[in-house]
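Observation: inputs received (chain + guanosine-5'-diphosphate).
Thought: call the complex predictor directly.
Action: predict_structure
Action Input:
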Amino acid sequence: MTLVLILVAVAIAVGLYFVLAKKSAPELEEADETATKKRTAPPLPPRRPGEVPPPPKPGEALKSVPPPAAAGAAKAEPARKRTTKRDVAGIRKGLATARGGFIARLSALFTGKKEIDPEILEQIEEVLLTSDVGVKTTGAIIERLRDALSKNELSDSDAVWNALRAEATRILEGSSQDAGGLHVDKKPTVVLMVGVNGVGKTTTIGKLATKLKADKKNVMLAAGDTFRAAAVQQLEVWGERTGASVVRGKDGADPGAVAFDATTKAAADATCDVLLVDTAGRLHTKAPLMDEIKKVRKSIDKALAGAPHETLLVLDATTGQNALNQAALFKDALDLTGIVLTKLDGTAKGGIVLAIADALQIPVRYVGLGERAEDLREFYADEFVEALFTREEAEPAAIKSPEDIRAEA
Ligand SMILES: Nc1nc2c(ncn2[C@@H]2O[C@H](COP(=O)(O)OP(=O)(O)O)[C@@H](O)[C@H]2O)c(=O)[nH]1
Ligand SMILES: [Mg+2]
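Observation:
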C-alpha cells in the first residue's frame, strides 16, 4: 500500500515537472528573443535523461570539437573573404595625419638606434597614452613588451618595433574576425546606423549607397532622423546622387514609424537588396533618447522578423576617449554588429582604433579617411597595420601581398 502511494506521488511530481517546463520555455525564448534571434545555431536534438551520446567514429572526434575562438570573437561569424583590392598605399595616404603624429613620434624613439635604450618602454608608453590608445590598452601592450624584453626575446630596437606592430595586429584582429564591409546575404539586408550627432552617420550611409550601387545592388534609404529637416534633405541629396529611393515621413514624424514604413516597403519590393536606415544622433546621455533608438530597432524587427541584420555604431576618431564612452552606452542598449570609425584622416593621434578594438570587442568594419565616397574603406587589421606602421625609410621596400602580385600580373 505504502509503495503504491509513493509511486503515485512520484508520478504526479514528474507530470507537474514536465507541464511547468513546457510552459516556461516560450517565456524564456521571448525574453531573450532580440539577443539571440539572428545568431543562434539550430538546436541539437534533445537527449533523453541518462542517454549516452554515441561514440565518435574513428577520425570524427576532432571534427566535432569546435575550433578555439579567438579573443572576443564569440559573436563573430567566420572571417569573410576580402572583397576589395588591397590598397595599402591609399590607406597610408588617408592616414597621413596620424602617421605624421602618432607614428612619427613612435618611430623617432627608434631612429638611429640599434641598441635598446632601457628607457624605451616608458617613452613608448607616453606616446601611446597621448595618442588615444588609452590607459588599459597601453598597459597591456607595455606589459607584453616588458615580458618579451625580460626573456631576451627582443634583441635590438627593430625587434621592439616589430613587436609593437605585432601587438597592434593582435589587438585589431582579435576583435575583427568578422571585419571587412557589409554582409549583404539577406534580401533585403537591413542596416541600422546609430551614433551621436555629427559623427558621420548620414555621410557614411551616402558612401555605402555609392559603394553598393557600384556593386549593382539596389539600395533604399530611410530618413529616420526626423528631428531636423536638413537631415532629411542631406539624405535626399545622397539618394539623388546614387539613384537610391528615400523613404521619409512628415516633418517631426515618429522615427520608429518611418523605419517601420521603410522596412515594410523594402521587404515588399523584390528588387531591393539593401535598406540603410539613418537615425538621429541625439545625446546618448539622455536615457529616453536611447530608448527611442531601441524603439526604432523594434519597429524594424516588427516589419521584417530578424531585421536589422546589421547595427553599425558610427564613432568619430577625433573625439578620442569620448568615442569609447559613447560606444559603451550604445553597446548596452543595442546588439551592435560593427563599428564604423570616421574622420581618421583628421587626427594626429589615431590610437583610438586600438582602444576601441581592445575595449569593445566589436569588429571595426569600416574606417572613414575623408569626405568622398571612396574614402570609406573596409577594415582589415593586417592591411591597416601595414599602412599605419610602415616607417618612411622602409617604404620603397613595401611588402607585397600575394593579391597585389596576382593583380599586377
Ligand atoms: N574628414 C572627414 N569628414 C567626415 C568623415 N565622415 C563624415 N565626415 C564629415 O562629418 C560631418 C558630419 O557628418 P554627418 O554625416 O552629417 O553626421 P551625422 O550627424 O552623424 O549624420 C560632415 O561634414 C561630413 O562630411 C570622414 O571620414 N572624414
Ligand atoms: Mg545625420
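Thought: report the result.
Final Answer: The beta strands are 189-194, 219-224, 245-247, 274-279, 310-316, 338-342, 364-368, 376-378. The radius of gyration is 26 Å.
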